[in-house]
Write a structure and sequence with these properties.
The protein is α/β, with parallel strands linked by helices. It has two domains: 213 residues, Alpha-Beta Barrel (TIM Barrel), CATH 3.20.20.70; 111 residues, no CATH class. Helix content is 36%, strand content 13%. Strands 3-2-1-8-7-6-5-4 form an eight-stranded parallel beta sheet. A two-stranded antiparallel ribbon has the order 9-10. It starts with 21 loop residues before the first strand and ends in a 33-residue tail after the last helix. The structure holds zinc ion. The site of zinc ion has 7 residues, from helix 11.
């Protein structure tokens, strides 16, 4: 039984089971209509982020989604108080109205936590204890990467999370260094092993590996700003201006690329076999057909293609054996890194980090299809809340 640091027991409703092994789209309130339409498949769902602190708008859209659109896939609401230069610290109290409104809507309760800075152990304990007192909440932990990369900090994090026992949803801030520290991936894998349900939110595609390794759910952003958490910017920093270029997912590269870049690369390497797409939207066509869509349709079609591919990958990577899922993911990361090299695209360090974090198969003996998933004995487990068929 999960207990908080004061020894009280926690309890979680069965509705949490709907999240089991879900791949969620992390989207803005303004993107909900399109995201719900495309993520309406088995295994899909949404994390809806409040735009610029507009909690009322986010709640209103969620109510419409449930009561008018009758959307029945998992939905989480993200108050995003940990974002931007005016972010709140981890010590900031939760907004009880935000918590109550999620309950009223019948949604899993995700805490509106502030940002967990490096070495802020009191902030960590505070978020976990307050989430445990709510009795039905997922503790949102938007954290500095040192909590996973630094050995002592990681041990502290895992000890507290395991002791309190509430499910946690992790958002890992981008490292200020150009490369994410390699130890972030093994750090997350250790957190998965601590016996508490773990979700990874506001992530990029490589977070799919966490789903292979037993994460309860992973949320991948619909746009670059929702696929990462930026560090606080220097005072004189001015964000880049201009219209963002539409990006689409290139399945064999396990990454997004701007359509314009895909078009250029396709012309240079027309026969390397990575441009045809078998997703429901493309139906075997080459990705060039997305480029050729009329201006008014291109963005929507590209969005649908990317979500289709994500949910296809999710279905392929969440078999009954965690070990086989991990090996499959490792092999895909190796192949994707090789594909990117072939066409001269930048290397993605995360693809290497995953290959280093998962031990390769060393024996011909195939493992029995068992689950060593985190939180296997909790009410998140498939034994009590079978997931929808993929
Ligand atoms: Zn496609």
């Amino acid at each position: 039984m999960a207990r908080d640091l004061d020894g009280r027991s926690g309890g979680f409703g069965r509705r949490f089971g709907d999240l089991d092994r879900s791949l969620l789209l992390h989207c803005r309130t303004s993107q909900v209509t399109q995201a719900a339409e495309t993520a309406g498949r088995a295994g899909g769902g949404l994390v809806v982020t409040a735009d610029r602190g507009n909690l009322r708008g986010c709640l209103g859209r969620a109510r419409h989604l449930r009561e008018v659109d009758h959307y029945r896939r998992p939905v989480l609401l993200d108050a995003a108080r940990y974002v931007g230069d005016a972010r709140l610290p981890a010590a900031a109290p939760f907004d009880q109205r935000w918590i109550d409104c999620q309950r009223d809507l019948g949604l899993p309760v995700l805490t509106d936590s502030g940002y967990l800075a490096r070495d802020d152990t009191a902030g960590l304990a505070g978020i976990l204890e307050r989430a445990a007192r709510l009795g039905d909440a997922i503790a949102l932990l938007p954290m500095h990467p040192s909590w996973l990369a630094d050995r002592i900090a990681r041990q502290t994090l895992i000890r507290y999370v395991a002791a309190v026992g509430v499910p946690v949803a992790v958002v890992v801030e981008e490292s200020a260094n150009p490369f994410t520290p390699a130890s972030t991936v093994p750090g997350l894998l250790q957190l998965l092993g601590c016996g508490v349900p773990v979700l990874v939110l506001r992530a990029d595609l490589p977070a799919l590996g966490m789903l292979c390794s037993g994460a309860t759910a992973v949320a991948i952003g619909t746009e670059p700003a929702l696929r990462r958490l930026d560090p606080r910017r220097p005072a004189r920093y001015r964000p880049p201006t201009g219209v963002p270029r539409p990006s689409v997912l290139v399945r064999q590269c396990l990454s997004y690329a701007p359509l314009a870049e895909i078009e250029t690369t396709m012309r240079r390497y027309p026969d390397n076999g990575m441009w045809d797409c078998g997703c429901a939207t493309c139906a075997g066509r080459g990705l060039g057909w997305l480029v050729d869509r009329p201006d008014g349709e291109r963005g929507r079609t590209a969005f649908r293609h990317s979500v289709d591919v994500l949910l296809d990958l999710r279905a392929e990577l969440t078999g009954p054996s965690v070990q086989l899922n991990e090996w499959s993911w490792r092999a895909r990361c190796a192949a994707a890194a090789s594909r990117r090299r072939e066409v001269g695209w930048d290397l993605l360090p995360m693809l290497d980090h995953w290959q280093e974090a998962i031990a390769p198969p060393t024996t011909s003996r195939m493992p029995a299809p068992t689950s060593r998933r985190a939180g296997g004995s909790s009410r998140f487990s498939r034994a009590t809340t079978p997931r929808s068929a993929a």
